[in-house]
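FAQ: What does a multi-protein file look like?

Like this. Sequence, then tokens, then the next protein.
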Amino acid sequence: MAVIARHLMILGRVQGVFYRNWTVEAAGKLGLAGWVRNRMDGSVEALIEGPEDAVTQFISLAQHGPPAARVARIDVVEAAAEGLSSFQKKPSY
């Protein structure tokens, strides 16, 4: 099964609403690896890696995120798969 990776920039009201925790949980349920972090500009950045169907499903779910989030848009860019084995929260950047 081919592994793909996508770099996401999630914009809107996505900080202070448990978006990072939601991301870790949602990615885990889909068997994805990668990381997520808050950015100083108020956005959330993530690298999602795994089977194409699971990555696509995650991006669809991420349009909504947790109940308090208001996602304005997600910028998605192809990325090189790094062979990550887990999903983690990184410090803010």
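And here is the next protein:
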Amino acid sequence: MANIKSAQKRIRVAAKRQARNKHVKSTTKTAIKKVVAAVGTSEANEMLVQAIVAIDKAVVKGVYHKNTAARKKSRLTKMINKAAV
């Protein structure tokens, strides 16, 4: 454990951020898995919209880089469109 006050605070802050990031990332991954599971069904588009919202929230919170988010959204959209054809 750190002895300096500021170092102790950094540890607390880092733990708090890590917990928040883990929750956001987990929620986003779950939304993505739901889209993959729903490919080819009638509710796939609804799931896609929810996943895109979750990904965008993760970007705003700094969990994902904007290019990573764009890539994930693009791949999911392609997957849904390919199944619809």
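Q: Is there any per-entry metadata?
A: Some entries carry free-text notes. For the entry above: DSSP finds three helices and no strands in the chain.
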